[in-house]
Amino acid sequence: MNRHDEAHDEWLVDGADDPDQAERELIDAFSPARWREDADSLLQAIESLQRKPLPNVRPSRGPARRVLPMAGSLAAAAIGLAVVAWVIMSPGSAPTTWSTASGDVIRRGEWIATDAGEEARISSSIGRVTVGPGSRVRVVRADEDEHRLHLAHGSIEALIFAPPRIFFVDMPSVTAVDMGCAYRLDVDAAGEGTLQVTGGWVELEAEPVAARVPAGASCRIGAGGALGIPRFDDAPGPFVAALDRFDAGVGDSLDELLQAARPRDSLSLWHVLGRVEAADRSRVAGRLASLVPTRDASIVDRAAALDAGALDAWWSELRAAW
Fold this sequence. Notes:
The protein has helices at 6-13, 21-30, 40-50, 74-80, 82-88, 237-247, 253-260, 266-272, 278-291, 298-304, 308-319; strands at 98-100, 105-106, 111-113, 120-124, 127-131, 136-143, 146-160, 167-170, 175-178, 182-187, 193-199, 201-206, 209-214, 217-221, 231-232. The chain is of the alpha+beta class. Helix 9 packs antiparallel against helix 10 (298-304) and helix 10 (298-304) packs across helix 11 (308-319).
């Protein structure tokens, strides 16, 4: 292993400072990864954490050398530990190619095709991708600074621990940009499908719109690059119905949408802000501010004018409510 320090080794090896049950689970899951240079052991550790509930995690009482994520589930903790993974397993020390479970290298330009009822698992230095049944995926690029796949149709499940904007998945009209996360993509040959994010967040890019989809949320992908409004998977029925009508362009759906929104649905309203006419933006921004008050009142008017800096600043504040 190339880039690591003694502090990380101590945290992984001896479990100093009498860690509680939650800390032991993290240490036990990740300690095998320190002995191996390939991604498999680390990914298996992350996947094992994703399947478990997280006991109460307390801040470390010892010296400031241990990385203990404060999260509501071990799935979130696993994604948070991507930073640890990056230190332990420097991508610069691992191959940048994609390979199958049997070790066969998939070269640039080659396709992975699965029949109905079968799936394929491929991995590289940045993570693992499971290609679902009846799918076609091509390796477009596999370099240290960029990994890019093309999903022609079918589904993939990705578990990625690279820094943001290293892993991309191109679809017929949309690109999924990994921001350090775990997610599932389903798309048909016409380019219609769904993104569902289970850890971190993903940015969907299509001209002229984009969508940011955090963990626990999903987004519809339409043919020709049309993107739906992201929504949390636990959004209440009346809000979902109003959002579907808004996506379909039904006349009075905006009023219903604003009325039915809860604070967590600020995710959707933030995206709605950029999809309505100028005359409606103040109403949307006002409703957003009433659901999740901002620390900077000037953001409201600037965001209503689609000021990019204000929108980004508001996004950062809204995420605390999710």
